[in-house]
Amino acid sequence: MKDLSDVTKILSALTSVAAVSGEEYKLFDAIGSFFEEKSERDALNSVIFETNGDAEVSFLLDAHIDQIGFVVTDITEGGFVKVGAVGGIDARTLCATDVMIHAEGGDVFGVVTSVPPHLSGKNEGEAAEVTDIMIDIGMDKDNAEKAVSRGDTVSFRYECRDLLNDRIVSPSLDNRAGAAVLIRVYQLLKSACPAAKVRYQFSSQEEAGMRGAKPASFGVKADEAIVVDVSFSTAPNVDKLHAGELGKGPMICISPVVEKSISDGLINVAKLNNIDFQTEICSGGTGTNADVISISGMGIKTGLVSVPLRNMHTFSEVIYKGDVELCAQLIAEYIKRRVCSDD
Amino acid sequence: MIDVLKELCLLNGISGREDAVREYIISKIKSFDDCKYYVDNLGNLIVEKKGKKRAKNKVMLDAHMDEVGFMITDIDPDGFLKFSCVGGIDPSVLPAQRVNVNGKVGAIGVKPVHLLEKSEKNKYDEIEKMYIDIGASSKEEAAKYVSPGDGCFFESDFVEFGDALVKSKALDDRLGCAILLDLLGTESEYDFVCTFSVQEEVGARGASVLCAQVEPDYAIVVETTTACDIDGVSHDKQVCRLSDGPVVSFMDRGAIYDREIYKTAFSIAKENGIPVQTKTLVAGGNNSSSILTSHKGVRTCAVSVPCRYLHSPACVINKNDIKPTVELIKLLVKKLCDD
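YS: structure for the whole thing
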């Protein structure tokens, strides 16, 4: 059994804070607590830590830290809160869920309203659009307007809980799992490869259209970049064609937009070190920050490693903590091999 | 009463598995000197309260102990749990929801929105297609913790929020249980009987055997009832409104209520300045459907606390509706005992 205590500590710190796209700064303290280096924050709320080893080859590691959620758009006559989606929200997962509105004067609890079909006039089985839903904060209009403002972000209010087998269920594992991989790589390299020159980039606004990683990577002189994100895992309604498997290790992406030599190198390192891995084939873009980092500035050779995840973009995303550890070991070994070994 | 309500709501008890709730209520009743109780063949808890005087008419108050939830039906080869709903649960409140089975946390799986076919978008899966993920990696592993027939519950906490609102699972009908406990713990002028019944959510079954035992002249069913008082729903379909006081029904899907008691309830409320409302739609049903026609037929009324998002993990009530409900019930009991 792998020792997952470090990963557990990191994931629990990162999932305990909500940071909907645009409010990534809420996570800076939680991330910073794992780094000795000083952080650098860019104009769009990405936060970066750099280790300046004397290696000739340098790396950019990227994971986005924002999460899907909502933004308050209006308050109704009855004091209910209307919202717009931030990121790809599945409207089918909203009725009767607990949310937290992150208002200026403090968080405000609410429940997403749920109207049974015989009272809503909707057809049986038909879900509302996100713009149709309302949040019940239990206040009349006057009090609601005092407590909540347009533009406040809203997140799902569900805790990170343990399932069997070192699997966990939590909101925001997309992509706190990836952020945890970066922190873990940092921990692994610190003692094993102090010469490594790595830029740990925790980027913003991926869920809003990969907007943070591009400016964060602009002008960065890295020889290679590796993006860490989550990807689909198999489940009863998700077939193998689209997905990896929970517990089978890092998903190494092979795609036209991803640097082939990095994909091959990662696979090679996985084999040499007996690290379980799986490949993910994307015939076009990857839908991750790899798509934008690879063409930022004058272009960066970019690879992509993903943590398999179930129920993506819901408040019950499920991962296996061991996959996070293995992603980190794979990337750390890859960097070590490039930096520290002579072959 | 809020503390008792919280403890009651956080207990798990789908229909037929009300044991934890019944034990909790019994533990409370044991400290009431003027109450005698017994548990019948189906698990209904029947409590006789001694008042200062003997009542002319025997009045029975009923609240059900069970809540809606799930029953595990099968474990698939990969360790995912298949389930059926116990009681009426709309599929819309299920995707991604957290549940608890034998103390293990699980989540109802959802196909990622990115992978949905056009025909699947904005359409709820049928419950038969849904499954629970407790993290097991095989059927054998899941079977160590879960067996077909095990009860499964919404994993949802008790939150006080907004202007006097409460959100929890199982407010239907632990709130009724809490109200009855409150009445049993208070000195009463007349004798009366309280029943904490089983299996309401699967067709008001427990209540159907109560009256052969209690032989009441009148029954008052103490419940929660659907309030859909949210913007965009027409007045008639709002059914009733939070913070407008107890709901006394004239008719629902299961009962045509006694006209005289209905009117009496309203006049008592008026005389005593208690807010009261009725339902604006013939909808829902409760144990009245069984009680009404059981034994030799029982004159019945239902007094309910309005509740939003009924039968979901996040039922919502207004605390300010509880006190007038208790007051109205007390006065109504007195009146019916005395009449």
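YS: worth flagging: Chain B is about 25% helix and 25% strand.
IM: good catch. Also The longest strand of chain B covers residues 218-226.
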